[in-house]
Amino acid sequence: MQHIYDESFERIVRDVQIGQQQEEYYPVKLIASRGTIQCRYYPVKDSDRAVIWVGGVGGDWDTPARGLYPLLCQQLIKEGIASLRVRYRYPAELEESVLDVLAGISYLHDEGIQNFALVGHSFGGAVVIKAAVQAPDVRTVVTIATQVYGTETVADLATRCSLLLLHGAEDRVLPPHCSQRVYQLALQPKRIIFYPNADHGLDQVADEVTQVVRDWIVEQLNRSSTRVL
């Protein structure tokens, strides 16, 4: 494994175990001294682009918008973009979850990936922002109903990494002003979209969210193949 960006996580990933293919993905275990990071890898041969997807504080394989993550993992294969879903070792522990994402980036580097998009829901929004700040190969970040705590360094993404924030206007778990606050802290390039009548999971607007996230990732990662944002 390559060096992982955070010094406290250096050499923690000691081995990689890849299971038999399950539908469109391969189960991947990143064996670490502080726990095993379980992933689902949707590879694309010879691709240098990939998305890492993380859920909220509930952990496991949770996904917003009626199965957004597995759906887009499969759709993006057709665009030549690989995906890695990461299951937190310790859900709700922000710094540990950031390290999980950085470990995923390190693994994908060994698979030839050079340009990354990070997508996180709820708690995961803060996770992917903090991870992107530490990982210079991240070209874009997408947050869905993000929390504010842990996003204070979002301005450090400016110029090299774009930011898309999505939030339901009827979110009672993390009100939409959370994404608004992150948007205010961030610098360009950035975009924010609020969905009327949508709650924290954005299930009510799943089709729209799927299209927006897909188009954004394809555009941003295609752009990164010729120049850095």
TrEMBL record:
One of its GO terms (molecular function) is hydrolase activity. Gene3D superfamilies: alpha/beta hydrolase (3.40.50.1820). Transmembrane segments: none annotated. It comes from the Bacteria. InterPro entries: AB_hydrolase_fold, FrsA_esterase. The keyword Hydrolase applies. Keywords: Hydrolase. This is Alpha/beta hydrolase. The lineage of its organism: Bacteria, Bacillati, Cyanobacteriota, Cyanophyceae, Nostocales.
